[in-house]
Specification:
435 residues, alpha+beta, Alpha-Beta Plaits, 2 domains, 6-stranded mixed β-sheet, 4-stranded antiparallel β-sheet, 19 strands, hydrolase activity, Peptidase_M20, Peptidase_M20A, zinc, metal-binding
């Protein structure tokens, strides 16, 4: 038994040594600096999570931003706050810059807000052994802390000096302010200057392997409005009275399901209302309807989202949906549909795959295993999509957890150290490369 134990221990150290032999002396010091700060990193995370920063709580969003701003100021970054117009009712964004003309220019993205608005019953911070439950602990304050701690590790060994890094922490990622040209204008300008964009949303596992995202689907919406002839229900289905708005809405939705489906494309009708009169309130996302069972419905309204992987796929979907709405209407009905896009699609690219390979190589060299790409249909939208048309981007460099956007959102504590090591090595390797 003793011999087997000694042999197993020797094998462990041999494999561990082989993995770390891929790291340079500077990189080994970066890893050591990350590990030394692990308890302090968790304290920084707790400090920021204990502040509610729901998107519609601008004071809380700003307070979290001030915590991160102080950390970045201490690391030698020039920081500033970008205010949004008062009518937008958003907190604004924190921007930080570390300029150098030597290496590649890297843009780092995070967000300060969460889906948990002020007054949420979800605990701010609740330690549960090797996991932490809390508001935005995974999405995405864990990733924000990983970003800051990676930069701190680089600075501690002198590797931040030649790095050209810009950072944007948005204050409205969960409920983006409008107009988008204002809400994301500064981010797009920063992307146009960058060689790479790294976003620190949470990562996930697929078949036991950690993943990152080089593609994300759009996030947009559609509104279907249907008209029928109000009349006594005894005449429904007749040529004179027609079928009514609700039947026509049902026909259209079923045709969408039968005729528009293709891989990576989804269109979800999240709300439907019908009757004699229908109204919808955008600010509360609520609909009201009046109708009687013996009256054919005059109005119907359906609101849904639309997600696609490429602009071409989105255009195909819109054309098919429009054709279904415009043709084959049931007698006595008419319909219109309008579309909107909040987050543009981020289709996979060869450049994105190469960046993922660099990230995976850094992880493997540190003995943390390979990184695979994830299925974009399993993720929502994120800020990286605004920069994707202008630079090479990757997302999912943040913490690993479960239940994002739910009352049970949590993270694995160990993923903070793991993510920080990976991010620090990737940023180091990217910024040491001459432009």
């Amino acid at each position: 038994m003793l011999k087997r134990t000694v042999a197993a221990t020797a094998a462990f150290f041999l494999l561990n040594g082989v993995a770390h032999a891929q790291l340079s002396d500077t990189e080994q010091r970066i890893v050591a600096a990350v590990k030394q700060r692990t308890p302090a990193a968790l304290e920084l995370l707790e400090k920021s999570v204990r502040l509610n920063s729901g998107t519609l709580n601008p004071e809380g969003v700003r307070a979290v931003g001030e915590i991160y701003r102080a950390e970045l100021d201490a690391l030698g970054f020039e920081t500033r706050w970008i205010d949004m117009p008062p009518a937008m009712k958003r907190a604004g964004h924190l921007v930080a810059t570390h300029e150098s003309g030597q290496g590649k220019h890297v843009l780092l993205l995070g967000h300060l807000d969460t889906v948990f608005e002020k007054g949420s019953a979800v605990p701010l911070w609740e330690r549960q052994g090797d996991r932490v439950r809390g508001q935005g602990v995974n999405d995405m304050k864990g990733g924000d802390v990983i970003m800051i701690e990676a930069l701190r590790a680089l600075r501690s060994v002198g590797a931040l000096d030649p790095a050209h890094v810009e950072i944007m922490f948005t204050g409205d990622e969960e409920r983006t302010g409008h107009p988008l040209q204002v809400a994301r204008g500064d981010m797009v300008a920063m992307a146009k200057r960058a060689d790479y964009a790294l976003s620190f949303e949470g990562n996930s596992k697929h078949e036991g392997v950690d993943t990152a995202a080089i593609a994300r689907r759009s996030s947009g919406g559609w509104v279907l409005r249907v008209k029928g002839k109000p009349a006594h229900s005894m005449g429904v289905f007749s040529a004179q009275s027609g079928y009514g708005a609700i039947y026509e809405a049902a026909r259209i939705l079923n045709a969408f399901r039968e005729q528009v489906i293709e891989p990576s494309l989804t269109f979800n009708p999240g709300l439907i209302a019908g009757g004699t009169d229908v109204s919808y309130a955008d600010d509360t996302a609520t609909a009201t309807a009046f109708g009687k069972t013996n009256v054919i419905a005059r109005d119907a309204e359906v609101r849904g989202d639309l997600r696609y992987l490429s602009p071409e796929q989105g255009e195909r979907a819109r054309q098919k949906m429009q054709a279904i709405v415009s043709t084959g209407n049931l007698p006595g009905t008419s319909a219109t549909i309008t579309f909107s896009e909040t987050y543009p699609p981020m289709p996979p690219t060869d450049a994105g795959r190469k960046l993922l390979e660099l990230y995976s190589k850094a992880s493997q060299d540190a003995g943390l295993g390979r990184i695979d790409t994830n299925d974009p249909s399993l993720r929502g939208a994120g800020d990286v999509q605004f920069v994707a048309p202008h630079t090479v981007g990757i997302d999912g460099l943040g913490a690993q957890g479960r239940g994002a956007h739910t009352d049970d959102e949590d993270l694995e504590v160990a993923s903070i150290e793991r993510g920080t090591i990976r991010a620090a090595l990737l940023i180091y390797r990217l910024t040491q490369t001459a432009r």
